């Protein structure tokens, strides 16, 4: 019995969407969006990156509302701004959901700093972290953050961030960031497999 080429090809063809994992990343501003948008690649996971309207809590609530079968993981990348009450509120807003929180203290700029240098001195404010990043990387600006400017140093940032906060369970550690967990998941690092900690464990 002759099997047509069309039938055989149709049976063997895989759906590209099924082969790629998908992430929804809700972030605070253009710095984070520029970074994660730049991580998109043809063979990597599908990354949908949005900046929701409203404050930190609104962003977490929107993330919770957008959890669906469309995404393998939903993340919120936000700053603690050294505010314990704010951080506690973000954790509560995500509690009981599958939303993952990538929190940085005092801000996402600390994650970017770690691409260039090991830094453990506490910051007094989020603005101090931005000033330090600008000092280390004079050409950086919030509205013009490009992943390509940091790509070759991701491994260094990852190692430094993980060394500071190995389990990512203390978001108020100053300075610290659990963004390395999200990066591990996007890049498919072995240590990210089965490590999903769920909401409230950033």
The rough form would be described as globular
Rounded to an integer in angstroms, the radius of gyration calculated over CA atoms is: 19 Å
Classify the beta-strand content into a percent band: 5-15%
Major β-sheet annotation: 5 strands, mixed
Mean pLDDT: 88
Per DSSP E runs of 2 or more residues, the count of β-strands stands at 5
Spatial gap, N to C terminus? 59 Å
Structural class: alpha/beta
Q: Into which percent range does the helicity of residues fall?
A: 25-40%
Brief summary of the model shown:
The protein has 202 residues and is α/β, with parallel strands linked by helices. It has 9 helices and 5 strands.
Can you walk through the features of this model?
By secondary structure, the chain is an alpha/beta fold. It has one domain. It is built from nine helices and five strands, in the order H-H-E-H-E-H-E-H-E-H-H-H-E-H. It has helices spanning 5-12, 16-19, 30-37, 56-65, 84-94, 109-116, 126-136, 154-164, 179-187; strands at residues 22-27, 46-50, 73-79, 100-105, 176-177. A five-stranded mixed β-sheet has the order 2-1-3-4-5, sandwiched between helices. Helix 4 (56-65) packs parallel to helix 5, helix 6 packs across helix 8 (154-164) and helix 8 (154-164) crosses helix 9. It is globular and about 40 Å long.
List keywords for this structure.
single chain, 202 residues, alpha/beta, five-stranded mixed β-sheet, 9 helices, 13% strand, globular, disordered N terminus, disordered C terminus
